[in-house]
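User: ok so my PI wants both of these folded by tonight, can you help

Assistant: No problem, let's get them done. Here's the first:
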Amino acid sequence: MLNRDDVLKIVERDGPLIPVQIGSELKTSIIMAAAVLSELASENMVKISNLKIGGSPLYYVKGQEEKLQGYSNKLHEKEKKSYDLLKEKKVLRDSMLEPIDRVALRQIKDFAVPLNVNYKGVIETFWKWYLLSNQDVEELIRKELNVKKEKKVKETKENRNVVKEVEKKEIKPDDARTTSGTNSVGKKEAVHPVMKERSVKKKVSKLKSDEFLKNVLEFFKENDIKVVNQNVIRKNNDIEFLVELSSSVGNLAYFCKAKNKKKINEGDLSTVYIQAQSKKLPALFLTTGDVTKKAKMMLNKEFKGMQIKGI
């Protein structure tokens, strides 16, 4: 059995680190090292990062947060771009960001802290650089809101002099209201399988139990798509799949999102794109509705390689 104190000392000395480093030094299995680290984390003796290295989170103790920046190169391209922007600006106003940045900031939880600011009865979300002090973030938010120094921004919980952190509830990007579009295939995508388009209804009717899932599965059957795994996020509305598609070079694995929605905006696309990127898979988006014009434009620029199909 591993001595917990030995493991903790190594983390205090070398953290942030991953279980394999503990296992190597103490000559034990990665599983055993990970088990002890998890136990220490459950007792708040060590912290666990959201960022993963080879599938494993980083373990560290209080005071080592700054060292997490040394692993920022492990972020996905879109996340790294938002990371760099936040590091430079220190505070970002959610409503002023592109949808791709809104989604990315919600993914890099180690570096981006969400703040909910109530100013004149209007609640706005801001993102602060995780190492920024309360005093500095207060000044930057005041400047962004054009609030005079004598006026204070109300806060609760984590940031005692500033704002209320949004810990569990994420704010989704605003829906875009424009015209419809179709899918685009990015460069180096010549081996994409050809899928049959089904007619797209302009109005999404209220579906009976499991009807949306049945329609999606029927689409898969028609296009010879094999379902490896499925996860119903919201019944008759939102489903995620891991699928395999036949192509001229063999079966291709895809992360697939099926959404029953009248309008698909750039926020919807960016969310799916980043999910697929995190799994290192191409993205397939199935929808009963239309893609907005702005989303279509971003599809050609930001989400190259994503497949969108009507069902």
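One down. Here's the second:
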Amino acid sequence: MKAIVNGAEIGLVKTDANWFPESEGNYAIEHTGSGKLLIHVNGHTYNATLLEMNRAEKSMEILINGQKHLVQIKEPLDELLHSMGLDKVADAGAASIKAPMPGLVLDVLVAQGATVTKGDKVLVLEAMKMENIIKASGDGVVARILVNKGETVDKNQVLIEFS
């Protein structure tokens, strides 16, 4: 697991229910309620407040001792999907979604005429024995659904068009 903090990559390890930097040290976290934490690192205490969280983007903005920090989490699955090109499923302008690789359509999660926003789940594609959730890369309205549940698709085949 990795965290990108203000553009710098940090390796993370899990201890108990929390994730900490791979570097050695003594760490502890106290939840004080309402999105506030006390983070204890090697004898120093930091006040942290969650300002904003985007679960779809796996990112958050936090305030630590008065300084804002942008944190993005990269899980091993994120790295795998990136290496396979599955994180770039739509073409420019979000006019359509194309299949990132050959696969089987397990489910279509939207209907024609539905309004979607960036990050909304629109389709489930099985490829290489993995279920991949295909998400909208931008805001739009579903103009046409060109595939059905149970269909096999080819790489770059248009699955859904937006207006």
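Helices lie at 76-84. Residues 2-74 form one domain. Good luck tonight!
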